[in-house]
Specification:
The longest helix has 40 residues. 75% of the residues lie in helices and 0% in strands. The protein is mostly helical. Helix 5 runs antiparallel to helix 10 and helix 8 runs parallel beside helix 10. It has a single domain, classed as Vanadium-containing Chloroperoxidase, domain 1. The chain is globular, with a radius of gyration of 21 Å.
């Protein structure tokens, strides 16, 4: 592993653990309350519509449908490993659910639990933001695949859309009163860490597959074998 990447992962891990422990032991921070009070009464129709639309992409079964749709496209293109790892981005939901139960932080006062929410048991808690975790991991991995396999205008459109959604989902959760600011900050940190781990695992699987394909090629074509003597 590259030294800079190892340092980045280490810093993300330490930061994620630190803010998670702070959320557990100290609850809501002063700056969380200040931002929440500042946004109270703010109701710009245009901004509200945009924030609601972005947030909707992470509601209920929408993430599952979106993930499996992208995985189906990968499978259609015979990119089986990519399809598996796209589905694996749903692991962010498991990670988020576990952390929510461990931290048990209360939601902002304006939050109302949707009675139709299929994940009420987890979503009654605030930290971390499941939406932000999902957006960073899924749309981040999708942008990575677009950078790796596509080219031209389609590549840049997909990367731009994924990046925009990742940037907007945090503010949308705060604006709509669903999360505290520190929920979002912690989720961006943890989500980025998990995204890098998934990409590294994906690259490792490709590497191992490449080695196996080289072994098969050597058996089928003995003339390609190189001997150390």
């Amino acid at each position: 592993m590259d030294r800079k990447l190892a340092i980045t992962l280490g810093l993300l891990l330490i930061s994620g653990i630190a803010i998670t422990l702070a959320a557990y032991f100290f609850g809501v921070f002063k700056f969380d309350l200040k931002v929440a009070f500042a946004l109270r009464g703010e109701d710009d129709p245009g901004i509200a519509a945009l924030m609601t639309a972005v947030s909707f992409l992470g509601d209920s079964w929408v993430p599952v449908v979106t993930v499996f749709a992208v995985a189906a496209i990968c499978a259609w293109k015979k990119r089986w490993i990519e399809a598996v790892f796209v589905v694996a981005t749903l692991s962010s939901g498991v990670l988020g659910g576990v952390l929510k139960m461990l931290v048990g932080r209360v939601r902002p006062p304006s939050f109302t639990l949707n009675p139709w929410d299929i994940f009420q048991y987890f979503n009654q808690y605030s930290y971390p933001s499941g939406h932000v975790l999902y957006f960073v991991v899924f749309y981040g991995f999708s942008a990575y695949l677009a950078w790796k396999f596509l080219s031209g205008w389609l590549q840049w459109i997909i990367i731009a859309v994924c990046t925009t959604l990742i940037v907007l989902i945090g503010p949308s959760r705060i604006y709509l009163g669903e999360h505290w600011v520190s929920d979002v900050i912690g989720s961006y940190i943890i989500g980025t860490f998990w995204l890098i781990i998934l990409i590294l695992l994906y690259q490792f699987v490709l590497y191992r597959r490449g080695l196996k394909e080289d072994d098969v090629d050597s058996l089928e074509n003995p003339e390609n074998i190189t001997y150390p003597y």
